[in-house]
Amino acid sequence: MIREQEFMDKLSETRRYIIEKINMEPQMGIILGSGLGGFVELIEDKVSIPYQEIPNFPVSTVEGHKGQLVFGKVLGKPVVAMQGRFHFYEGYPMQEVTFPVRVMQVLGVSGLIVTNAAGGINPAYRPGDLVLLKDHINMMGDNPLRGANLSNLGPRFPDLSEGYDLEWRQKALTIAREVGIYPQEGIYAAMSGPSYESPAEIRFLRTVGADLVGMSTVPEVIVANHGGMRVLGISCVTNMAAGILSQRLSHAEVMETAERIEKQFVRFVQALVKGLA
Ligand code: R1P
Asked: What is the ipTM score, two decimals?
């Protein structure tokens, strides 16, 4: 179980290590989902720090998640991007899965764009669609805030009634149209994975109102909200979920679709950083 002082000490050590390497204060954080890491090509005056060099950082083990923090500027705005995230199914406890969000918080980040590759449940979706998240359903069986509250970082019982900031969502829709993108809006259900969901689980998720399913994002969003950040969530529909179409699922397909829509995704996130920061 997490001890507050121990956690804060770790966080300070990580922060100290990072601020010695960068000479900027990132304003916005971006978490790049499976196959979407190419966004970092766009970051200027880059300082990239591999996760294995950062004290107290876990290491990404999933294909399509390179494993580095990239600091720099996007259209003049100071950002930090996670090229690769940590998933609960990799075996990390929730506090480790979300440790980078805490690091962003203590570096001064006040807004987070969190992205993922997701399976489409809503039959109106097609692989390749971008979806702005309006809410989530936590089906992971755990919560990153379990344990002693980190009272220096946020409240015991954070409100999630606008876990995905409404004003940002509205602005994001306008910004999307300006760059010729027409995203869907939907609710993301997070499962623990790593097995993909069964057709019966997908029918269940559809019944309870989920439009998309994946194995990430929700822990990060909970911690970001706890830390007082504004959050925007974007899913790339990389495949239809089990049982929606009669085809089998694979991470190779997830990566392939993510790569196919990466250019459009990058254009959108770039415009968002400019418009929201
Ligand atoms: C499954 O193909 C993987 O893709 C998604 C799922 O969560 C799972 O990790 O990855 P991201 O959510 O990290 O984009």
From this structure: 0.98
